Each structure stands twice: as structure tokens, then as C-alpha cells.
Amino acid sequence: MVASGAVKAVVDPVSELADELYELHRIGAPSDGTAQRSFKSRFMAEADTFGVWIFFPWSGELVRYPDKLLHRELRTFRNRNLITVGEQSVLSEARVAVLGLSVGSNVVDQFVQTGIGAA
């Protein structure tokens, strides 16, 4: 695909994802730059096997994404001060109907961002 010229850009946020994962697994722990650098270097050493690559033909972008479970965990862990883990689990399984897509589209966007109805 790359050799064919179809790929116009490669988006690989693996370094930023390593920082997010470090923060995710150390919620509430004091900041420790040495530990973060160590975690990141171990993560980057195995980065070739991390996630999945998705090609978007309309933009020509090849993007690396974490797997489904990790993507959801990364997307929703910042909600922890608003929605408990138990509530997130219940809300992710919810079936949601939104009528009226003028204002409703913003509601749907917020549901997706917070993981509501996204199982």
C-alpha cells in the first residue's frame, strides 16, 4: 500500500499513547519523571507490535490505533472524576436513542466521547 503511493501520511501517536498509558496506570500517584521515562522506553521497545494500523482511503492517512479495549480505556479514563468505573460499565452497555440531530448531534458526540452506549 505504501509503495503504491496511496499512503500520503502516516500518523503514529505511539509515543503520546505511552505517556497516556503511564498516567492511566499511575492514577493518583506522585509525578516521577524517571519512572515515566523508564516505562516509556520499555513501551517503545515493543512498539512495533502495539495496536492496529487503519488506512483511510479518502485522506490517504495510515493511522495506528490501540486495540478496542485499550482505546476505550484510554478514551474514558479521564471521566473517572465524573463517572465511576461501575457507572461507566453500566453506561457503556446502555442503548441510547437521540432524536433531532441539530442539537442532538452534539449530544451524540458527547455520548461517544464519554463512552456511553459504546459497547
Topology:
Elements: E1 9-11, H1 14-25, H2 33-45, E2 52-56, E3 61-65, H3 68-76, H4 85-92, H5 104-114
Parallel strand pairs: 1-3
Antiparallel strand pairs: 2-3
Helix pairs in contact: 1-2
What is the compact description of this entry?
The chain is mainly alpha-helical and 119 residues long. It has 2 domains: 1-66, no CATH class; 69-119, no CATH class.
Strand order of the largest sheet: 1-3-2
Average pLDDT, to the nearest integer? 82
Number of strands: 3
Shape: flat
Question: What Rg, in angstroms, do the CA atoms define?
Answer: 18 Å
* Helix/strand class: mainly alpha
How far the N terminus sits from the C terminus, by CA atoms, comes to: 31 Å
Strand fraction: 5-15%
Question: Uncertain spans, ≥5 residues at pLDDT below 50?
Answer: none
How many domains make up the coordinates?
Answer: 2
Residues in helices, as a percent range:
40-55%
Protein architecture, described:
The longest helix is centred in the first third of the chain and has 13 residues. This protein starts with 8 loop residues before the first strand and ends in a 5-residue tail after the last helix. The mean pLDDT is 82. The chain contains 5 helices and 3 strands. It is mainly α.
